[in-house]
Specification:
CATH architecture: Orthogonal Bundle
Number of strands: 0
Distance between the termini: 36 Å
CATH topology: 434 Repressor (Amino-terminal Domain)
CATH class: Mainly Alpha
Strand content: under 5%
Number of helices: 5
Shape: globular
Order of helices and strands: HHHHH
Number of domains: 1
Radius of gyration: 13 Å
Length: 74
């Protein structure tokens, strides 16, 4: 399961409802929540956040928490 999948599962989100509200296909929602190699686009993340009544910035912080800048060039 992807970070998005875990995030939606913790919030007990119905993926069919997300697909319906966002206009994304159920197959795409399943891909984004189950396939680690799937790339979540910014527009998709924004629509999903709106569909589940979550602040998009907070959702991005959670989904991207493991990212950091390479400080070796400083």
């Amino acid at each position: 399961m992807t970070k998005l999948g875990e995030y939606l599962a913790k919030k007990s989100v119905n993926k069919s409802m997300v697909a319906r509200k966002t206009g994304l296909s159920k197959a795409r929602i399943n891909e984004l929540t189950m396939t680690d190699s799937a790339k979540l686009r910014l527009d998709e993340m924004y629509l999903i956040a709106l569909a589940i009544d979550t602040d998009p910035c907070e959702m991005m912080k959670i989904l991207c928490a493991d990212l950091s800048l390479d400080e070796s060039d400083s």
